[in-house]
Design brief:
With 483 residues, the protein is an alpha+beta fold. It is 43% helix and 12% strand. It is built from 22 helices and 16 strands. It has helices at 2-20, 30-45, 69-74, 80-103, 113-116, 120-123, 129-135, 157-172, 174-187, 195-200, 202-205, 211-217, 245-255, 260-263, 281-290, 306-309, 311-327, 336-339, 343-346, 352-358, 390-404, 441-446, and strands at residues 111-112, 140-144, 151-155, 192-194, 223-226, 230-233, 333-335, 363-366, 373-376, 380-381, 384-385, 417-422, 425-430, 435-436, 472-473, 475-479. Strands 1-3-2 form a three-stranded antiparallel beta sheet. It has a three-stranded antiparallel beta sheet with strand order 4-6-5. Helix 8 packs antiparallel against helix 21.
């Protein structure tokens, strides 16, 4: 109503002004100037004129900027080294997915590139399969099939040895994996977890592919399967009820001579380079570090104490649980979306993504790759793990093969292979025994008039083959490209 009252006052003032300026000053007739006056008042009424003497009384309400998980994610300080590491880890994950699909082929280790091109959407490639395979000759070995004359692929010996080494390390570390699963169950609200949730983070925890049978069923004294999809802890082991953060707190207490009040509930804080500390942030962080909370392995009867301390204690307990979960992983990182499968079991009733972005000194969310990944900042220094483990060392060796790219390809020839040239053909003889796909060589030799083949060299050719999966023989030859 007040706004309309001011409009009416301005309208009357303009009417009086019209009488005053009706002819000589403006050079307009009374009717034309009145139309012009009505247009001006209409513009004022709809607030189309932003600045001027007639709208100084109008005020716009100031809206407070919305602070959400999306805005925090967009305005966060980037860690370039962890982003670069994540890009390489995404390539390694894609290569391991391709290797897993290749290993599922029952007729041999060879797979045609034409067949592999169908896996492009499965592994999430945005380039052609052939172009991707040519980028990493130290990982994939491409060759022409001697009979079908189509391009085939197999994993190189160096990459295959690293995959076998990782499987051997995982198999030898079963007692450690059992303790890792027991600690996860001890953190849960009822001592139970869904097997599907463990399967989603199987590689991050270093579990074997058949962990349900090789670990959960094998150690029946420690675990019990309920309805085949829920694993339950049989007995609680209090010797394992100590979080990894307690080791850091004890070291800080002894080395830096800090008081127990300062270190009992504190977390290591490592801000990324370029992080701007706002006014009053240090004081808030200091008070938050001293705030007591319910630790991850404490008994569940004390869980109701969180109601007395407010939402800050409850959030700090969620930070402690996520911190311990990341500490139990091999590479101290985890996909954010997979944390949602543990919210109900760990009693985390807050927005996980917003909680991680709120504590940028403890966690770092990387958006490189196909999903958002959270890193434990204290575990990394200059893009490398501070305390490496055997599985991490093997995966770093796999990354080294990826870093090579198309360089040093001469080292791909194994020393035991001897090349011989005869009649424009190159023979490769492997002293280690037969090689897959070599059984077709005598069949091709029988059609070559320039090469004499004795009848005893021709093997039985009634074996079935598919693409480039086949049996084996003693020699392999390819056409000499230089001739």
């Amino acid at each position: 109503m007040l706004y309309l009252h001011f409009i009416l006052l301005i309208r009357e003032a303009l009417f009086a002004l019209t009488k005053f300026l009706e002819g000589e000053v403006c050079g307009l007739s009374g009717e034309a100037f009145w139309v012009h006056n009505m247009i001006l008042v209409n513009c004022l009424r709809h607030n189309r004129i932003l600045f001027g003497p007639f709208n100084l009384f109008s005020q716009r309400r100031w809206k407070k900027p919305v602070i959400s998980a999306q805005t925090r994610l967009e305005t966060r300080t980037r860690d370039l080294k962890l982003d670069k590491l994540m890009r390489h880890m995404h390539k390694l994950k894609t290569i391991l997915d391709i290797h897993q699909l290749m290993s599922q082929r029952k007729r041999g280790s060879f797979v045609s590139v034409q067949l592999m091109s169908r896996w492009r959407n499965i592994v999430g490639l945005n380039v052609g399969m052939g172009a991707f395979l040519h980028k990493y000759p130290h990982v994939f070995e491409l060759f022409m099939h001697p009979l079908r004359r189509n391009l085939c692929c197999k994993i190189t010996r160096r990459m295959r040895d690293l995959v076998d080494e990782e499987e051997k390390i995982v198999k030898d570390s079963e007692p450690e994996l059992v303790q890792r699963i027991k600690k996860l169950l001890m953190m849960s609200k009822n001592g139970t977890l869904h097997v599907h949730a463990l399967r989603l983070i199987r590689r991050e925890l270093g579990l074997p592919e058949d962990f349900r049978d090789s670990i959960l069923r094998k150690y029946s004294k420690d675990f019990r399967l309920v309805d085949l999809e829920i694993v339950q802890l049989v007995a609680r082991d209090e010797s394992l009820a100590e979080a990894e953060i307690e080791k850091w707190r004890e070291k800080e207490y002894k080395d830096k001579w800090l008081s127990e009040f300062e270190t009992s509930y504190a977390f290591p804080i490592n801000f990324p380079t370029g992080f701007k500390i706002e006014r009053g942030y240090r004081e808030k962080l200091k008070n938050w570090q001293r705030l007591p909370y319910l630790k991850p392995y404490e008994s569940k009867e004390v869980l109701r104490m969180r109601m007395c301390g407010g939402i800050e204690r409850f959030e700090k307990r969620a930070v402690g649980i996520i911190h311990e979960l990341l500490s139990l992983t091999v590479e101290k990182m985890l996909v954010v979306e997979r944390l949602a499968h543990f919210r109900k079991d760990f009693a985390i009733e807050v927005n996980v993504c917003e909680l991680l972005l709120k504590h940028t000194g403890i966690f770092y969310i990387c958006t490189k790759g196909s999903a958002q990944t959270v890193f434990l900042r204290e575990a990394y220094s200059k893009g490398c793990l501070v305390m490496p483990n055997p599985i991490y060392v093997v995966r770093r060796k796999m990354l080294d093969l990826i870093f090579l790219g198309v360089r040093n390809t001469r080292s791909l020839e194994y020393p035991e292979e001897i090349q011989e040239e005869r009649n424009g053909l190159v023979f490769r003889k492997n002293g280690g025994g037969r090689r897959d796909g070599d059984w077709v060589i005598p069949i091709l030799d029988s059609y070559d008039r320039n090469v004499l083949v004795s009848p005893g060299e021709i093997n039985d050719s009634k074996q079935p083959f598919d693409g480039c999966e086949s049996g084996s023989s003693q020699s392999v030859f390819f056409e000499d490209q230089s001739s």
